[in-house]
Amino acid sequence: MKPDETLLELAKTAWNHAYVPYSKFHVGAALKAASGTNFSGANIENASYGLTRCAEQSAIQAMASQGERKFSEIVIYTEADDPATPCGACRQILYEFNPDAQVYLVNHHGVIKSYKVSDLLPDAFWL
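^ thats the sequence. predicted structure below, dont judge the formating
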């Protein structure tokens, strides 16, 4: 399976906008909401590390801020040699907005890995 090309381009653009003065590790994410609207986000670091936001969180926050509550797929773009997976916190956030959504991990070499959110976080926390 391959990611939606528009989402991939949006994720790459977000990657370029990442604010990463500490880690120097850029991440861009773009997702398609249930309505079909696309949202993107970049990782934004802060000197107070706990205030740092991951790209996946930024994209979900953009979506939720516009009243959307579900997404169908997300593309996460990095320039890591092996496509980077979401951190544990992001996996939980993605799960809350659709455990069945498709996750595409893509790097600058064109390597693509594909998972369902629920595959990345089996037995997720749920209230």
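The first helix runs from residue 5 to 17.
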